[in-house]
Amino acid sequence: MSTDVPVLPLIESDELQAIRGSIREIADRFGPHYMRECYERDEPPNAMWEALSEGGFVGINVPEQWDGGGLGMLGLITVAEELAANGSTLLLLVVSSAINGSILAKHGTTEQKETWLRGVATGTKRLAFAITEPDAGTNSHNLRTTIKPNGNGKYVINGQKTFISGVEQSDAILVVTRAVLDDGNLGLPSLALVDTDAPGLKRDKIPMPYLGPDHQWTLFLDDVEVDEDRLIGGFNGGLGPIFDGLNPERIIGAALAIGGGRLALEKASAYARERTVWKTPIGAHQGIAHPLAKAKIDLDLAWLMTQKAAVLNDAGAKAGEASNMAKYAAAEAAIEAVERAIQTHGGNGITLEYGLSDLWWGVRLTRTAPVSAEMILNFVAEHSLGLPKSY
Ligand SMILES: Cc1cc2nc3c(=O)[nH]c(=O)nc-3n(C[C@H](O)[C@H](O)[C@H](O)COP(=O)(O)OP(=O)(O)OC[C@H]3O[C@@H](n4cnc5c(N)ncnc54)[C@H](O)[C@@H]3O)c2cc1C
Questions:
Q1: Boundaries of each Acyl-CoA dehydrogenase/oxidase C-terminal domain copy (predicted)?
Q2: CA 365 to ligand 1 center in whole angstroms
Q3: Would you tell me how many other CB atoms lie within 10 Å of the CB of residue 134?
Q4: 83-102: average pLDDT
Q5: Within this chain, do residues 113 and 134 fall inside the same structural domain, yes or no?
Q6: Residue 206: domain span
Q7: 129 touches ligand 1 (CB under 6 Å)
Q8: What is the mean pLDDT of residues 17-36?
Q9: How far, in Å, CA of 339 to CA of 357, rounded?
Q10: C-beta of 369 in contact with ligand 1 (< 6 A)
Q11: Nearest CA to ligand 1 atom 44
Q12: Residue 1 above 70 pLDDT?
């Protein structure tokens, strides 16, 4: 077979299996309640991030040349899925490792890679990602955060972003702006790395239900200045770089959802084997067993598509359709798995003690973010089926 053809490994390699073992060991060291403990102390999960960094896992997708593990998105989804299946979801794996790691590896200058990508790969630098705006929402053509040269070799950013994850634990934020051209019109996107303590940047925490210890923020950028070396892809040159970050974002979102779904299913199966309220354990009732079996099938199918998307992405092949489909399938399968696990646990499904309610919002989020189910169906209708666009 030609080595140019991307190959989907149907049996996980010894290397990936060993990685899963190491992730389980790290997760065990912190225990199943680590995320909630951090949340209750209102502290970022720094100790776990550092343990994962020391093991080389947060930058496992980054090329080895830049201190990463060189295993691409296939490596990162293995880390993310195993971690989530052991009770820990780190949103920085999405924004720092998957999005920023992918964009910098492909579009950073040598200097930007030295400064930022090495740090992302080793976990010593953490980067958030800000595209969503209050008034643009899903319609990224409507982005209104602007960047403009100030005539002194610097660029000035003004605007607002919302729902930005993990700013409190990041060194900088990759902000998606629109270039203001010489004629005053808005040009293409430009990507700027803005320090989280930059003058002119303010943030408000958005009150959220339990999603893990990471926070979401509304950002206000008021005449924030950046040097030219903070622009990834250059002024008016961010469109290609953004696209190279979006598929990894979807793929990693899918992996985290599937891990959460697997954890829920394992909890539900264990509970249904033991809990007896009539003559047999509740797992003998098909009303309980069949939905769990269906959830297992749907999660495995979604994992297959997620691997496919990762392999295509890593090979530099077209991965948009597979990444969208993976994220859609993973979110739906994981939500159903958590929902059925809650139902299997009766009243205990809603208690904090059994940990299912803690899984709910994190998994439910994936139907909405990083891209909503509706927008994926729009993509498939338009691009895969050639149907006309309504919006
Ligand atoms: C916990 C959390 C973390 C997040 N982290 C980040 C982050 O780190 N960085 C970041 O930039 N963003 C982040 N987001 C934002 C997230 O990506 C957006 O919330 C998501 O893309 C949806 O955008 P919106 O909320 O503006 O919804 P809207 O665009 O207002 O959409 C509302 C609803 O209308 C539907 N809809 C809109 N247009 C159409 C259409 N044409 N056809 C059919 N249906 C349509 C949508 O699917 C959705 O169901 C996060 C969000 C959450 C909740």
A1: 237-383
A2: 10
A3: 11
A4: 97
A5: no
A6: 129-235
A7: yes
A8: 97
A9: 10
A10: yes
A11: 374
A12: no
